[in-house]
Specification:
5-stranded mixed beta sheet, about 20% strand, alpha/beta
Length: about 170
């Protein structure tokens, strides 16, 4: 009886994997998803959105509330009409109340205006609480806002709201 030969593996006898069916399947899936996405996008409703021509913000004159006074503190850096040759950091250029401009630190005028507005509100017999809203940006130092708070306290206003615009990066 002849002796069986041992099978030896060599580099030429390596197994080969046929990738053709897998590639065919992959291409068929790609084609399916392309066709499905095109038909899904055709089924979407076509919307025409209106384009805004002008600002939709309500002017301050129309929303003026009788129970509050809004004091805008404009910083010297943000102001177009600079009162300083070189704006100082944290320095306010003016206070603006309903378009009326006040010099920074003019407590007497602020106090008179706030007292008149508070008395007019009380005379009208309105419900709620009269308050002062102070608006400033991040560049204004507290020392520039403190006079408004003092004037409001002297005018008998016990409630204040302070809004600050933060820095945008």
């Amino acid at each position: 009886m002849p002796k069986p030969k041992k099978k030896t593996t060599s580099a030429s006898d390596d197994m080969a994997i046929n990738l053709t069916p897998m590639i065919d399947c992959t291409f068929q899936l790609i084609i399916f998803f392309i066709i499905a996405s095109q038909s899904a996008s055709q089924m979407l409703a076509k919307l025409t959105l209106p384009k805004l021509v002008e600002s939709q913000a309500i002017p301050e004159k129309e929303i003026r509330s009788p129970d509050r006074v809004i004091v805008n503190v404009q910083s010297a850096e943000a102001s177009d009409e600079r009162e300083y040759a070189v704006p100082l950091p944290g320095q306010a250029s003016r206070y603006v109340i309903n378009g009326q401009k006040f010099k920074v630190g003019d407590i007497a005028s602020l106090e008179k205006l706030l007292t008149d507005r508070r008395k007019a509100w009380e005379a009208a017999g309105k419900q709620g609480e009269f308050y002062v809203e102070i608006r400033a940006d991040h560049r204004v130092a507290y020392s520039q806002v403190a006079p408004i708070m003092e004037a409001a306290a002297e005018a008998g206003v016990v409630k204040m709201r302070i809004d600050a615009e933060v820095a945008r990066n």
